[in-house]
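Model it.
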Amino acid sequence: MVNITENATEECTINHNIHQTLSPVVYIFVFIIGLPANCLSLYYGYLQIKAKNELGIYLCNLTVADLLYIFSLPFWLQYVLQHDNWTYDELLCKICGILLYENIYISVGFLCCISIDRYLAVVHPFQFQQFRTMKAAVIVSIIIWTKEIMTCCFVFRHREISTDADSHVVCFEHYPIKEWEHNVNYYRFSAGFLFPFFLLAFSYCGILRVVHKSHGTQKKKKIQIKRLVSSTVLIFLVCFGPYHILLVIRSLLENNCSFAEKIFNIYHVSLLLTTFNCVADPVLYCFSSESIYQNFAKMRDSCLTYLGCPRTEMKESYPLNAPETQQATARATTRVITNIT
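Modeled.
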């Protein structure tokens, strides 16, 4: 039984219908698609670690963050289907909230690690080797998790359950937002979105510049790399941009129930967009790999053969890990372009 000792600042009467219509569809979709995709992503990261590739450590941490949030989705699904009425205790509400936020910001942190690792590998292949080791990746991973856990402990020392105008127990919903949330939202926007975005954009612009100048890389391969890099930045903006912009808007303008009611739907749509990151990550960082594609093609052909169906013809592929030039520098640059996938 939930013990309520603190009510919301105001009892805002807000239409929560979006939680009974759109939210369940998104949660179910992400759970069904994201769980197996991230399990495969975790296995791929393990193979990278086994091959002594520090990129695998970042990928595994990114996948673990996604999986932890995916495991909390059944609780959020039950919450929204019960018309935003939290039936568990406050501790579980805080745990689910922590998993939601750690998915956003730990994912952002490891996306930046992957982009920086690729930037150093492609743009500075003979320098900064000490930052591209397994030990360095482990240390950076520990720092990111520690920093985010400490941030969550600071933020979630406040009560996170309250009652609304319909006497429902709401979890992680304050309308209008409380005073202490303003500075937290500004921090999330600047340190959790704006700075990582500039870091991501800088890294990938450097990669694209080197790939464009590389004479040892096929034209179609360059197009493939450019599309992958552009997709990464685009998905980062789509998944995390609207949510963080609305955080700032709420902090600046939301001081009464009237504004809270107007922004409720669009704010929660932006929050749902962050959930799709759990599906986008494994697609971008694993299934874009040529080796993974080849493995799935073999599995597909084996299944077709077993079912007595004709095998499909393999399309021409352009792997991202084949050196194609005789000059030493060009050869090294082409080789490290492997890190794009």
